[in-house]
Design a protein that fits this description.
This protein is of the alpha+beta class. It has two helices and four strands, in the order ββββαα.
Length: 71
């Protein structure tokens, strides 16, 4: 799937399941072409409005990134 890269959103920092430091960076994007293909990292893609997405998130750090998108 190809997307147009927009503004960078807040990054998240945490320790993974092996106690290694991890930084995850996010960007606002606009879908352009192609189709999503499941892989080892992501098995599903869904387009949701921010409120619906917030209800599905597990971690507060991900809610903070979503909040940066605004309504």
């Amino acid at each position: 799937m190809r997307a147009e890269l927009g503004e960078e959103l807040p990054s998240t920092h945490y320790r993974d399941s092996k106690d290694r430091p991890k930084v995850v960076r996010y960007w606002r994007m606009k879908p352009m072409s192609g189709e999503f293909e499941p892989n080892d990292e992501v098995d599903e893609l869904r387009w949701l409005d921010p409120k619906e997405a917030a209800e599905l998130l597990t971690y507060d750090r991900d809610r903070e990134v979503l909040a940066a998108l605004g309504e």
